[in-house]
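User: If you would, consider this record:
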Amino acid sequence: MKELARPRRLAPGARVAVVAPSGPVPEERLQAGLDVLRGWDLDPVAAPHVLDRHGEFAYLAGSDADRAADLQNAWCDPTVDAVLCARGGYGAQRMIDLLDWDAMRAAGPKVFLGFSDITSLHEAFATRLGLATLYGPMAAGIDFIKNTRAQEHLKATLFAPETVRTIASGGTALVPGRARGTTLGGCPALLATDLGTPHARPSAAGGLLCLEDVGEEAYRLDRYLTQLLRAGWLEGVRGILLGSWERCGDYAAVRPMLADRLGALGVPVVEEFGFGHCAGALTIPFGVAAELDADTATLTLDEPALR
């Protein structure tokens, strides 16, 4: 797996667009997130449809066409230095094929940030644009608004990425060892659902795979991982980082399932790495060459996440 093009870091005064590719965004949380960005000396602008609600499907932030237009217009706007997702939920897969990937490629690289349902967009940005992205707290999320650790780690990644080249999680080794590869991943529910689509990479071979999810019972997580295994998507993976499993039931039931499904791959696996839906979530760059040390629960990037 090749390293991807790294966007430029942000500087004070940078203009950042906030978009809602998936679920509806509470206005008070959006405003609080915009205030955080202003406190970082950024110039945030909310996309025109970021507070929309779909007329029929309450789980969507407006129509598929409007959500896609907001993302594409923000990306292709030469005055915008970064595109930040407001929240996850569901809906990115419905709008992803409406994006003009040729136009977005021509617009050049810039920072893209999101997690959860945004997994599908991370994969598309990698396969269609060859671009490294950031899997981290979103602009209208509770972590982004209120959690100091999440804020500080994300801010350092955006403005001074050389200061966070080693990401130390406080996790533990599920399978000990070291491995080198290129980071990728997201929610297994989305990675499994993406199989066979135009944006899915053929496999995670050569990768350090980051996995986390929310609101999925152990048997459903088992189903997603088994699908990825049966499809051969996990063949050649170099190492695995496991993040949070919020609202997935008792971790005492989830943990042995993860060990059963992933342990046989014969690669280092670290658990409770502290990214995803947990409080104080770390920002993990995707598309960057790195070394995983499961025994010390650290991920060390070969180069800063952003140039």
